[in-house]
Amino acid sequence: MKLQILILILTPNFKAMLPPIFRHFSYIHSKMVVYTYLSVILSSYLMIFLLFWGRVSIEHIPTLLLNTSNRRQAMDNYQLPLPTFSSAYLDLIDQSNDLVRYFRMINLSNIYPVVNRCYSSSGPKGYGVALFLSRIMKVKQTFVSDRILAKRLSENSTYRHLCLLDKGITPSHNTYNTLRKRLGVDGYAKVHVNFVNEANKAGLLNPYIKRLPKNRRKGLILIGDSTPIRSYCSSKGIKQDDGSWLFTDPSVSFGRPHHRDKYPVGHKAHSLITITGIPMISIVSTRIDSDQIHIFPLLDEFKKRFSSLSIAYIVLDAGYDAEEIHKSIYEDYNIIPIIIRKEMVYPKGFNTEGIPLCDFGYPLMKTGIDYKRKRSRYHCRKICQKDTQMIFPCSLDTGGFNLYTRFKDSYRKYGPATPDTIVYKKLKPFRTAIERGFGLVKENRYRMEYTNTYMGINNVTMHVIEHDILLTQDIIFEYNTIRKISPVIKV
User: Fold this and answer.
1) Within a 10 A sphere around the Cβ of 399, how many other Cβ atoms?
2) What's residue 25's pLDDT?
3) What's the distance, Cα to Cα, between the start and end of the chain in Å?
4) Domain 220-341+426-476 classified CATH 3.40.50?
5) pLDDT at residue 253 in the model
6) Residue predicted with more confidence, 474 or 56
7) Where are the domains of the chain?
8) Torsion angle of C-alpha atoms 473, 474, 477, 480, degrees rounded to 10
9) Residues forming beta bridges with residue 357, ordered by sequence position
10) Which of 67, 195, 202, 260 has the most CB within a 10 Å radius?
11) Other C-beta atoms within 10 Å of 298: how many?
12) Does the keyword Membrane apply (predicted)?
């Protein structure tokens, strides 16, 4: 190869055979000068190649240029067509950059099958997974609108690399409207199910928690609640003749007054999360709807999406404290409801805590719950024998006094998890975990209400599911990096 190059240089018409960029140099007159400038050109393109592939940083360019053999010669007589430098290099090689580490840990197999089915294989190749990754970027960086997201992608090369958009043009803002139409609520839900299954494989849905009772049912412990979402449309509506209000977005309505909202107009997100804070199901309704009417659709949707998972307990606040809910959750879904009780009045023969009394007025002790026969057993502790005020002897002193309370009499008062049971006392403090989860997606970590620029139940539902996906991925990321199981409870 070297001999061929030498023969080529020795030919008389060697200068005419050079490319135009070399013939432009008026002072190329010797073989040594040709070798010198040829090495400079090759070194420059080699440096650009290494810079493009992440082998040389931008800060090394002055050093490399000053170390060339012709650094003292004038270099203003020609210009080289250099490719565009990538400003994402320093971010991509930074080991402490959490955003880069976060996106590199996203399992693309959770997204690709769903997105691939929603787009036809014919025609030009679209954005595919990259488009959904940019949706994750929007929530992660709290961009207010799709237009701002498209602008940030076009301006920031790091964002483009992380979203796999560095090889082509960036999507425009109306492309995301097409994505929502193609995927729909079902498509977003399938992506979320894949992320939840990944968390389940890591053991994050039902980990070991020391504070939980050891003698409990096998299965998940879910927590349910709702949170308001302010509307994107104007809160000034037109009152109709029937007393209802008409807004620009017909899916919103007035809700209960809230100290944060002067005009409580919008939607309401109903959710079920695990005890570790992983969102499982979220549905959106108009704000005037009661929480009670959406607990059963949540459970039905859970059975539809996660048929292989079973629920052992569900923790709810006092807004769900109704006899019908207590009974249906246990009878129809085989789930023990841990519902915060409102004030209850017990009949004669019970104390204020719902514990039955013996004939002499002494409280009995619960010795067990028979879930098959749907009853609870109470036994006398014979504390009357130690009472100095006891006048008449107890007729049941030999065998003790037993009493049964049955679920059918009242699931609220005598159900499978009454306030005096251990499992109720152990699980009740975990109810506030869902409120801390709502705080993460709405205020402390993300801005679900602030970035809600959508109208319609379906669009707002997809917006909520996007935040559920991000919170699920956050828990997976924190577990893989620092072994933290939950952001909402102390484990």
Assistant:
1) 7
2) 45
3) 68
4) no
5) 87
6) 474
7) 2-85, 91-201, 220-341+426-476, 365-418
8) -100
9) 363
10) 195
11) 20
12) yes
Amino acid at 144: V
Measuring CA to CA, how many Å separate 329 from each of 64, 146, 267?
A: 72, 40, 25
Tokens 């954005």 -> residue? 127
The residue assigned the tokens 């979320």 is: 192
| Tokens of residue 167, six digits | 């090889």
* 52-95: pLDDT as tens digits: 555 445 555 555 555 544 444 444 444 444 444 456 778 888 88
Rounded CA-CA distance 262/239 in Å is 18
